[in-house]
Design goal:
With about 140 residues, the chain is of the alpha+beta class. It has helices spanning about 5-10, 55-75, and strands at about 20-25, 30-35, 85-95, 100-110, 115-125, 130-140. The chain has a single domain, classed as Thiol Ester Dehydrase, Chain A, CATH 3.10.129.10. The protein has a six-stranded antiparallel sheet, with helices on one face. The two termini are about 25 Å apart.
Amino acid sequence: MLNSNDIQKIIPHRYPFLLVDRIYELEPGKRAVGEKVVSANEFFFPGHFPHEHIMPGVLIIEALAQTGAITLLSMPERQGQNVYFAGIRHAKFRRKVIPGDTLRLEVEVTKMKSHFGIGKSRAYVGDELACEAEFSFTFS
């Protein structure tokens, strides 16, 4: 299990943009399962939306991408590198994510070459699918 202190040793993200609280399954370079506990105190809720707090879909995607970055940068040969979004396909949002929800973030790397790869991701609240997407990424 990786907590937020461990995660910050792997990826460069920091508050307010570190969107993964914990990793509880990790196969470096292959897959990871983590979580984001969504609090009413999140920085984005006052503006999205003041009358009905909903986690922005782009931030759910970012939480999934950070989980993918943890998967990739946990590989010994990738430590100290950066991984970047190269593209997104088939993104679908299936339910609202609101304060009190815990997002389970699942990422699987499906293809990887020297500096480019593809991964599939899903975010769940309980057993209910909230978001899914396919990512492409690159290293530097």
